[in-house]
Amino acid sequence: MSADGAPPRPGNRPKLGPVQGEPVTKRPDLAALTPRQRALRLAVIKEFKAKKVKKFVEKQVQHLNTNRQIVEGIKFLFDEHGAPPRNAPLEDIIQERRNIEYQIRWFDAVLQELRNRLTKVREIEDYAFESLGAEPLDE
Amino acid sequence: MAAPLFLLAPPRSYTSLINAMLGQHPQAFGLPELCLFNVKYLKEMWIRDSDEMSDDTRARQGLLRAVAEIYAGEQNKATITMANHWAAARQEWTTADIYRELVAKIHPLIAVEKSPAYTIALDRMLAMHEAFPDARFIHLTRHPVGQCKSVMQMNDGAFALYVNSIEFQEDRAVIEPQYQWHDLNINILNFLDTVPADRQLRLRGEDVMSDPPTQLARICRWLGIRDDAEAVDEMMHPERSPFACFGPLPALFGNDPNFLRGPTFHPHAVKVPRLDKPVPWRDDGKGLHPRVVALAQELGYA
């Protein structure tokens, strides 16, 4: 408590960065920047993302070239002594991969089914409007 | 309920290691990065926001691992699923209430946590103090050159960009990590003005790395817990923490991946660079900003 009994207030030491916000990660205050600075800021973010994607693709291509080296892909999980992760045994990793592949196949099948149904419904809708001599409402 | 101990520091300031060390004390419980005070309600940790960089699902992995360990005594796929259900059942709770439940569950052990994301916003630290008026805070510092170099080496400076630590030059913008070092430490100092002097401690990370037994014993005495050789020796083994390794696949992280890969502590003297030299991440030969130098000196770096 301060001398007058009120709870102490946070200090107001000034910051340094040209972009502020509370929090600066989610609500950056860009009003203080000139349009040119805003454009430069976006450019540096885009450049960063592009580099990240490039690195990711390079890594994937490397894996493909070496016939999907699973060990290489999960090497980062092994500790400083080369021991496998105690919470994520290889069996779990393989099972998880199989699960995801299974789910992808399942969603592919569902997607295909929905597309077939959509095509049929569209045909029926077109036929119905044709019979009425009217145009579909959203086209 | 034992009041928690929070480590406040920008990322790459030895926080993972020192948090795990303190958490190994027989009277303490070291938590992974919970990130709870990043938001007001628990459900917000599952909601994608308007962040320009990316949606980081890793922010909730520490909480899931902590719940799995505290309530089930182990971390595997099944207990992480349980932790997700635990969280779903409490999704409307405030994160302060969630935190209080965890602290009550591990009572009488003292919860020790560091989430560098708390230091991004003053509101987050005020929320921590509001939830735990008796909490203690350690302001952990690292030399600006060491911290900034480390930030730039991690994912090409992703964190610095994430907090908009950008310098505008004539025809380009570049990532300049000095701003995040300065402004996050300023956030901490501004926050600590609200905390009574006997509940805060400032510590140079380099000093802990150079002489951990002395520094750890000093922290114990400040906390009023055992500082005998046995307790200090236990703290020298951060790798024994249940969170000092990767988690199960649905919650792999909850901490710095480098620490998770190699949590063993190797005592070493840290070379503290000079404040008046060109900095290695810039290609124009410039050094630290005068205000960064002034703050570094205030924090005890000559």
Describe the structure.
The complex is a heterodimer of chains A (139) and B (302). Chain A has helices spanning 35-65, 70-74, 90-132; strands spanning 20-21, 28-29. In chain A, strand 1 and strand 2 (28-29) form a beta hairpin. Chain A is mainly α and 139 residues long. Chain A has 3 helices and 2 strands; from the N terminus they run ββααα. In chain A, strands 1-2 form a two-stranded antiparallel sheet. Chain B is an alpha/beta fold. Chain B has helices at 15-23, 61-72, 77-89, 95-106, 122-131, 144-153, 158-162, 178-192, 205-210, 212-223, 229-235, 257-261, 290-298; strands spanning 5-8, 28-30, 110-113, 136-141, 166-168, 173-175, 200-204. The radius of gyration of chain B is 19 Å and the shape is globular. The model of chain B has no long low-confidence stretch (mean pLDDT 94).
Overview in brief:
Chain A has 139 residues and is mainly alpha-helical.
Essential attributes:
heterodimer, A: 139 residues, mainly alpha, two-stranded antiparallel ribbon, extended, B: 302 residues, alpha/beta, five-stranded parallel β-sheet, two-stranded antiparallel sheet, 41% helix, globular
| Strand coverage percent of chain B | 5-15%
Total helical segments of chain B? 13
Number of strands of chain A: 2
For the largest beta-sheet of chain A, the strand count, sense and barrel status come to: 2 strands, antiparallel
The pLDDT mean of chain B sits at 94
Chain-averaged pLDDT of chain A: 82
Determine the oligomeric state from the structure: heterodimer
Strand content of chain A: under 5%
Spatial sequence of strands, sheet with the most strands of chain A: 1-2
What is the total tally of β strands of chain B? 7
Q: Structural class, from secondary structure content of chain B?
A: alpha/beta
**Major β-sheet strand ordering of chain B:** 2-3-1-4-7
Structural class of chain A: mainly alpha
N-to-C CA distance of chain A: 67 Å
What integer value in Å does the Rg of chain B equal? 19 Å
Order of helices and strands of chain A: EEHHH
Helix residue percentage of chain B: 40-55%
Give the overall silhouette of chain A. extended
Shape of chain B: globular
Main interface by residue count: A-B, 42 and 59 residues
Rounded radius of gyration of chain A (Å): 28 Å
